[in-house]
Design goal:
By secondary structure, this protein is of the alpha/beta class. The chain has a single domain, classed as Alpha-Beta Barrel (TIM Barrel). It is built from 8 helices and 8 strands. The strands form 2 sheets. Strands 1, 2, 3, 6, 7 and 8 form a 6-stranded parallel beta sheet that branches. Strands 4-5 form a two-stranded parallel sheet. The longest helix is centred in the middle third of the chain and has 19 residues. The two termini are about 30 Å apart.
Length: about 220
């Protein structure tokens, strides 16, 4: 299984490909979560967000939405935004153009069936687009969004403290934070460390009077 050790497109390449990594013209930051919905991780993340009156954008995986439509509905009902990650969590560089097109179609349909919404934001697994993947995303009306701060929370031997410290040190106006609310494609129980780190991150944001945003 490929895990999240792959690096995303770097800043220069992202700019050349017109792949946003930040939010323009704002002093706020955006919290984003990949890989859910998860039966344990997602509810806990939602509880913490509610406790801090914060909102986030969830990049959902279609095959997980199909198994847990109620959780996708809950994300939306609690005021968060829904975006597409994939239908199956696979590296685009290993897929044909038709496979990528089918993946987008199935992922969007799973979210539509569960929530009645049509996502417009997309982030590919591992943060890596193939040329065909980027073209097909735009053909599907999807707007790419990568990230500018990440906790590397999928790692087996990291800690909540390290996750939070890694995110906080990279914060600036317009930052897009990447975390994960699921461990389907990463180290077992990694979502538990993410939840603990999230409390630290949100406390820092609130103490510094930095707003989080719903949609990006």
């Amino acid at each position: 299984m490929i895990r999240h050790a792959l690096a995303p497109v770097n800043a220069r390449a992202a700019a050349a490909l017109q792949l946003p990594r930040t939010i323009e013209a704002t002093r706020a930051v955006a919290l984003t979560f990949d890989d859910g919905p998860h039966p344990e991780g997602t509810p806990r993340i939602l509880e913490i967000l509610a406790e801090h009156q914060a909102h986030a954008t969830f990049f959902l995986v279609g095959e997980q939405v199909a198994k847990r439509p109620q959780l996708a509905q809950r994300i939306l009902a609690e005021g968060h935004a829904i975006a597409l990650h994939a239908h199956r969590h696979r590296l685009q560089l290993r897929l044909s153009t038709q496979e990528i097109k089918d993946d987008y179609t199935r992922g969007l349909q799973a979210i539509q069936d569960a929530t009645g919404t049509n996502p417009t934001l997309h982030r590919p697994p591992y943060g890596i687009y193939s040329p065909a993947g980027l073209e097909q995303a735009r053909n599907a009306g999807l707007h790419p969004l990568l990230w500018s701060a990440w906790g590397k929370d999928w790692r087996k031997f990291t800690t909540p403290q390290r996750i939070a410290a890694r995110v906080i040190k990279d914060l600036h106006p317009g930052t897009v934070i990447l975390l994960h609310d699921a461990d389907f494609y990463s180290a077992k129980d990694s979502h538990r460390r993410t939840a603990q780190a999230l409390t630290r991150i949100l406390s820092h944001l609130q103490s510094s009077k930095t707003a989080t945003v719903l949609s990006v």
